[in-house]
Amino acid sequence: MISSPPKLRDELEVIRGMDDIPLIFDPVTGNYHRITRAGEVVLTYLDGTRTRDDLVAFLSRADQDRAAALSRQIDTFLAALDRSGLLVGSALPDKPQDGRRVRTSMLMPRIILTRSLPRLLEPVAILLRAVPALLPVLVAVLGALAGYAFGLHTLFTATPPPQDLAGPAFLIATGVMLLYVLLHESAHALVAQVLGTPVRGLGIALLFYFMPVAYVDRTDAYRFKGRGGRVLLAMAGILMDGWSCALSGAVALNSTGLVHDTAALLLGMQLLMLIINLNPLMPSDGYTALEAATGLTNARGRAFALLRHTARRQELPPHLANLSTAARRGHMAYGLFSAVYVCLLAYAMFHAVPVTVDLALSAVGR
Q: pLDDT tier at 247 (50, 70, 90 boundaries)?
């Protein structure tokens, strides 16, 4: 229990973020803490002049029944603020070392490659802000759709047999694909720059400590309220990949030999990247865009819980039972789509493993 009059640290910033959700920004850690609107009201009284009991008495307005329930809620809220180091006298979190480029987590250590993207992208962002917002969006979307259609058509009609793609073509395609991934992440960074929420850095994360994954730290996107902008921010990388896909397809159609084989392999890798980026079961770009568009959180968890309870004919928990009919159908459709996606992905991976192994072995001369 918090005994002394609780007071929020002076340097903290209380803002309204996406979907008008209240947030506490801690400049020491750079973290955002999501709170409820009721919690936002309580924060205005954490000025160090009221004790915990004063808060309960003031907010309950002498209603004894309400005071009992409010007392528990206030204790829980203050304890959460204290654990996060947000109150004066709380154990402060370790302040990040300036310039530190390596951060670790349980499953994904991250290495920052550069923090200069905002400075490099600002001249382009200035130009984009000067034109009607809808114009670059339409160009990006239509170009990406055409690029995917053209590139995937080329992949399935002009790709030589897998055994002809082994060796140098595989190695070169892997190197070029890394450049495409950097373009993908830079697209996210450019949209964030245009929206006024610059990324904090560009880096590489090691998923499960061995699988390299490029990323940009767009934590401050929490500050942007508009759903349309947040959807575009999430989809920017996928749109850039569509343009890259068109480039690979054009090279494949207008070349022969090693260059043709390399471009054909790139198209296959880009198809795989598209599948990964639309993965509904992971925090992929597609999933992030879905959450941004709908304003939902944990849509995946709700969808599978709904499917599980429905299949077992169990009584729905309150947070699912209170869903509207349209929301329930939407969650069911999402869960079924995810199940079909998993089945198709497993089928494709099962058939792709022998080909991938052959290409990898041939690339090292075996």
A: very high
